[in-house]
Specification:
The chain is built from 11 helices and 2 strands, in the order ααααααααββααα. It is an all-alpha fold. Strands 1-2 form a two-stranded antiparallel ribbon. The two termini are 31 Å apart. The structure holds zinc ion (2 copies). The site of one zinc ion has 4 residues, from helix 9.
Length: 326
């Protein structure tokens, strides 16, 4: 194990980064329990998103019968709900960390401020660019998939999972969706790094070397189509409308939180709510590493895992050179 730090960062977590203990040998039951506990309970973003999905379903979701036929009314309702949800989460985090600077540089990965101006950005500014792509393209495509799935469930084109018939599956689905995300996102993300796709689509997201909350959903419309396409799995895997809401909200909202640029929210000197991952933060600076997440260690398996140590940084530099062909 190394104690030396990677250069050029304000804050780094303890390295080497640890992947989920479910994929380490020998198995350590206590670590496995604490991984589940930490990623689900206390205040975790996952539990918060389950709460948001429930609240959306019970308070701001048109009845399922209404979504049997497409109509502007119910789709618009969902669109406005998603627009507000994304704007509130991203603006609150952005204001807290970057405008009011409530946490100064505590747990902030990159020592530099966000880029105010930059010609690589749409409207020549990072935040303006990020807001535009998140709201104009992101929310639209997110809502389109959501409406499609509600329409499919209402008409019986997609299989329905109910609490009454399958309570265990009903709960398990909340646990399985993040696992599926780790799998799905790794592979689409690798695909997006194939030069053909990278240049045309994914480069837009990578304008952000130093990321902030609004960067998470700043993607090219084609990338949004692929990204939110995850939910199409429910044409095969039965789900309740709450799972559909949760699935897409999980993708939309964790994109925001993982790009916060801070490891977590500090309350009373403690890191209370995990936000940005150093894993993905490094992806934005070094590009050809860490395509996935720590939940299922695909990166480890395929040799693209940057664990945050200076030693691994050298290995990844070599890898990048090989990929770039220089
Ligand atoms: Zn990427
Ligand atoms: Zn990113």
């Amino acid at each position: 194990m190394t104690t030396s730090k990677l250069k050029g960062w304000n804050h780094t977590p303890d390295v080497p980064l640890q992947v989920s203990p479910f994929f380490r040998w020998p198995l350590r039951p206590l670590e496995m329990l604490s991984w589940i506990w930490n990623s689900w309970f206390l205040i975790s973003e996952r539990l918060l998103i389950v709460g948001i999905a429930l609240a959306s379903y019970y308070w701001v979701q048109p009845p399922l019968e209404e979504s049997r036929t497409f109509a502007i009314g119910w789709v618009a309702e969902m669109y406005i709900r998603n627009l507000i949800l994304l704007s509130v989460v991203a603006s609150v985090l952005h204001s807290y960390f970057y405008i009011w600077k409530k946490q100064d540089d505590v747990l902030k990965y990159d020592p530099r401020p966000l880029m105010l101006n930059g010609r690589q950005f749409t409207f020549s500014g990072q935040v303006r660019d990020n807001m535009f792509w998140s709201l104009a393209s992101g929310v639209t495509i997110w809502t389109a998939y959501e409406a499609l799935m509600f329409w499919a469930l209402a008409n019986g084109y997609a299989p329905m999972l109910t609490w009454a018939a399958h309570p265990v599956w009903f709960v398990a689905m909340f646990l399985l969706i993040p696992l599926w995300e780790s799998f799905y996102f790794y592979w689409i993300h690798r695909l997006l790094h194939v030069p053909f796709f990278y240049k045309r689509f994914h480069a837009l997201h990578h304008r952000n070397i130093n990321v902030g909350p609004w960067s998470g959903m700043a993607m090219h419309p084609v990338e949004h189509l692929i990204y939110f396409g995850t939910v199409l799995i429910h044409f095969v895997v039965a789900a309740h409308p709450i799972h559909i809401l949760y699935h897409l909200q999980y993708y939309a909202l964790t994109a925001i939180t993982t790009h916060t640029g801070f490891e977590g929210l500090v309350i009373k000197d403690k890191d209370r709510l995990k936000l940005g991952t150093f894993h993905h933060q490094m992806h934005h600076r070094y590009f050809e590493c860490n395509y996935g997440s720590l939940e299922i260690p695909w990166d480890k398996l395929f040799g693209s895992f940057h664990d945050g140590t200076p030693e691994m940084n050298e290995v990844m530099k070599e890898r990048k050179k090989r990929i770039m062909g220089s």
